[in-house]
Design brief:
The chain is α+β, with helices and mostly antiparallel strands. Among the domains are: 158 residues, no CATH class; 86 residues; 51 residues, no CATH class. Helix content is 53%, strand content 15%. Strands 1, 2, 4, 5, 6, 7, 10, 11, 12 and 13 form a ten-stranded mixed β-sheet that branches. Strands 3-8-9 form a three-stranded antiparallel β-sheet, with no helix packed on it. Helix 3 crosses helix 4 and helix 14 packs antiparallel against helix 15. The radius of gyration is 35 Å and the shape is elongated.
């Protein structure tokens, strides 16, 4: 993740202007009041390092501080910031700082040219500026003030702090060309990507401008920075009528399927969510995880509320894994489990008995009281091949419909669908364990016992039946 994205997410928030004063060597100077941006960076996170051709930037988030160490060309800066700080529109000065906030800038550290500014606000909001020259504290001279005005614009430009507001100002003043001119001065390729993404977010480009932005992608290597530009280019390109294949080739510049899926998710949400759209974007995704994520989004899209079960099956054929299919079908069952043949069709669409039984058990949990439960249940269970999983289904049916004579008769009639005498014996035994039995059920149990080949199993079940009848 690049530094500008972290700063935009964690730091950049609009903050109301604060009234404060600067206290320097006993002199009180009023702060100017004008429109400006703010920084709020009081989060804990890990270190992110991005290497660029011209500069190297490291951003650290630790203990509520954001410490920037940024190298631009041949000038070395150390920059740290805590709290909400308001900068002027020209990025050359500080407008205001809330209490207990602090900003430090250190140039040419560990050299005889070392210069350091330490700007902090006390609990009353009064701002104190301390200045060190070659390691010794001194009064803030005109050179110190000049230093702040020279360094701040570079730091803010290269770090991307206040990027959204800065792009908005450049756009209002110089339009698309003005923003692009400013972006050309940015050395950090990741921050350049951030600015381009913000430009596309705030300005509806025409075809010519779209091509200008797309041409800048060759300067960006960071996956995150690329994604922040390719995403809006992909969606905007569709709206402008660019060729689908060209736009998909654009997304193919990304290696990360995580970023590709984010872009396609935005596209499906804002442009199109039909089957053809999914087929197109899935040519770029190998991961079943991300395919399933997008399918879930489409299935839950209100625009697809009228999609019939055939259409649902068509969509889910775009994933191969029963694991992900079962997750998606579980949601379908919650919404459409009461429709005829839905459970059977879902079970037929899965290859694994492990996931087939999950669907049957989920459906039984929601629909075991329905009048057609036995018909639907057996139609679905017929497609489960494993006697082990069939026994699980029969067990759940018995537990959900205790003492129901019709259910016990249906299970006894369905014993011929279970090949294993071991499992057939278990089912008969569990039916015997039910509290109530009609004469018809008792007769059916006796007949089922006789159908067993194992004499030992017959004897065990007959002894149980004798106890049952005596009680």
């Amino acid at each position: 993740m690049n530094q500008s994205s972290k700063l935009q997410r964690h730091l950049s928030k609009l903050f109301s202007k604060l009234s404060a004063t600067i206290v320097i060597a006993g002199l009180t100077l009023p702060l100017a009041a004008c429109a400006s941006d703010t920084v709020d960076n009081t989060v804990d996170n890990t270190v992110d390092s991005t290497n660029m051709q011209v500069n190297k930037t490291k951003i650290h988030f630790k203990n509520g501080h954001s410490d920037h160490r940024i190298t631009i060309m041949d000038d070395h800066y150390s920059f740290s910031l805590k709290g909400k700080v308001v900068f002027a529109d020209d990025d050359k000065s500080i407008e205001s700082m809330p209490s207990k906030s602090r900003l430090k800038i250190h140039l040419d550290k560990d050299t005889d040219k070392s210069r350091e500014l330490d700007i902090r606000a006390d609990k009353n909001g009064d701002i104190t500026v301390l200045y060190w020259l070659a390691g010794e504290q001194t009064l803030l001279s005109d050179n110190g003030k000049k230093l702040l005005g020279e360094v701040l614009p570079q730091i803010l430009r290269e770090s991307g702090i206040h990027g959204k507001a800065r792009v908005a100002r450049k756009l209002a003043k110089g339009g698309f060309d003005g923003v692009m001119k400013y972006i050309e001065t940015v050395q950090s390729e990741s921050t350049m990507g951030s600015y381009l993404g913000l430009l596309l977010e705030q300005h509806s480009v025409d075809k010519a401008q779209w091509l200008v932005v797309a041409d800048k992608l060759q300067r960006i290597e960071s996956e995150h920075a690329l994604a922040s530009v390719i995403g809006p280019l992909f969606i905007g390109g569709h709206k402008l009528g660019f060729d689908d294949n060209m736009l998909l080739d654009l997304v193919d510049k990304l290696e990360s399927e995580h970023y590709k899926a984010q872009i396609f998710s935005d596209y499906l949400r804002t442009v199109s969510s039909d089957y053809q759209s999914l087929e197109r974007v899935f040519t770029q995704l190998d991961s079943e995880h991300y395919r399933a994520m997008l399918l879930e989004q489409v299935l839950n899209d209100k625009r697809n509320a009228s999609l019939d079960i055939v259409g649902v099956h068509d969509l889910l054929r775009l994933v191969q894994s029963d694991h992900y299919k079962a997750q998606l079908y579980a949601q379908v069952l919650k919404k459409r489990g009461g429709e005829p043949d839905v459970l059977k069709d879902i079970v037929m669409s899965l290859d694994s008995d492990h996931y087939r039984i999950q669907m049957v058990q989920q459906w039984l949990g929601d629909h075991h009281q329905q009048s057609h439960v036995l018909e639907v249940f057996f139609a679905a269970v017929d497609f489960i091949e494993s006697d082990h999983f069939k026994l699980q289904a029969y067990d759940q049916l018995l537990s959900k419909r205790e003492k129901d004579q019709e259910t016990m008769m249906a299970l006894l009639d369905g014993l011929d669908k279970i090949r294993s005498e071991h499992f057939r014996t278990q089912i008969i035994n569990r039916i015997i364990s039910q509290d109530e039995h009609s004469e018809a059920v008792i007769s059916a149990i006796r007949a089922s016992i006789l159908d067993l080949n194992s004499r030992s199993q017959q004897q065990m079940l007959n002894r149980r039946m004798t106890k049952l009848e005596k009680s």
